[in-house]
Amino acid sequence: MGKQAIQAKPEPQGINKPYNKVTTNYCRNITENFLGYLVGKDITYNSDEDIEEI
After folding, report:
1. Is the pTM of this model over 0.85?
2. Structural Rg of the chain based on CA atoms
3. The three-state (H, E, C) secondary structure of the chain, written as one string
4. Which residues contact 4 (CB under 8 A, 6 or more apart)?
């Protein structure tokens, strides 16, 4: 689900205290990249002249 334990941490009280609550959902990022390669559109080449097979 991408939930991190730090997200349940309460916000600090006071102006000068750091608010270190930055998280990245790497599992989702990896999955979306993989699906993009798997299901994405194939690369096609177009030209005004004849193209030999690559």
Report:
1. no
2. 23
3. CCCCHHHHCCCCCCCCCCCCCCCCCHHHHHHHHHHHHHHCCCCCCCCCCCCCCC
4. 23
Cβ neighbors of 7 (< 8 A, separation 6 or more) are 21, 23
**Using an 8 Å Cβ cutoff, are 21 and 9 in contact?**
yes
Give me the tens of pLDDT residue by residue for the chain, a chain 54 residues long. 667 777 777 777 777 877 777 777 788 888 888 888 888 777 777 778 776 766
Is the separation of the CB atoms in 12 and 19 below 8 Å?
Answer: yes
- Using CA atoms, how far apart are residues 14 and 49, in angstroms rounded to an integer? 68
Q: Which residue do the tokens 């750091």 mark?
A: 18
